[in-house]
Task: structure prediction
Amino acid sequence: MSLLYNNALQLLSSSQRTWLITGVAGFIGSHLLGLLLKYNQFVIGIDNFSTGSRENLEEVLADNPRYKVNFLLKEGDIRDYEFCVDNFQNVDYVLHHAALASVPESLRDPREAHTNNIEGTMNILMAARQVKVKKIIYASSSAVYGENKHPCQQEHQKLRPISPYAVTKAANELYVNCFSRSYDLPAIGFRYFNIFGPRQYPQGAYGGVIATWVHNLAQGKLCEIYGEGTSTRDFCYVDNVAQANILGALLPQRNMHYLFNIGSGKSCTLNELLYQLCSIYEIDPADNLKYCQARIGDIKYSSASIAKAVRILGYTPSVELNEGLRNTVNWVQKRAKSTHTELLLS
Result:
């Protein structure tokens, strides 16, 4: 743990603030919730449960009985402006993670991606402006870079989004920048790369390749690679994302709007990723692999430069890929055993 992050956590412990998390029942949102409750913060959570899971919230709240005292769940949709305004009262920080966060889904239904991601974010910005929150942290995506020819993506590079999902995230960045400058609304956007970890489900909004493969290998199913397996990704464990959110929220803000890449700063091919997972399961990759035709909208090479986040935020990824994979595998196995036990007792 970096010194700056340790100082930030101590600051949390010393003073209770009110945080609002949109998409609180989702993969990333539930991890943010758990961290804030651990440090005695008061959290208002918003979710419409279209992709979020009540099971995620139950898992977080089961960690400590006192967590329930500091958590208020509000079920509703960020596309409802009045709902947003009603629940933003007395909020210090907003962590905006509600979204339709899937490239394939956005290709199947671009309008749904637009209404969720752009109109929903507009409501969040309007509500944050009206009640004068201290700062808004929001989830952007590495997808905004698109087919960028640079081997390592940096924040100043030209955006080339190639999916409706990526377009919505690029539009959000423009809207937030406009609100920050026009209405003095401090904001930080995180271009997340490939985030993974416990509570990420294959069918979920953030159901990435690791979630799919971990569950497939646990069930003896083949892992599909679209293309030749030479595509690269920057896989980042979810605890690192939680660190970035806390550092961003508590950062003394010089500029009204910052954008940061949040990843591990390293990349690996899909073939290499499968090898690492199969090594954890102690099985042969060749027996658990199926190559498929490359998909429309998939980016070939993706790798994050995190130098800006390191320099300004003090962000230091604390969980490496292999450790994160083992944590994720352990969670899936533990959950499978728990489900099996429940079935035996029912």
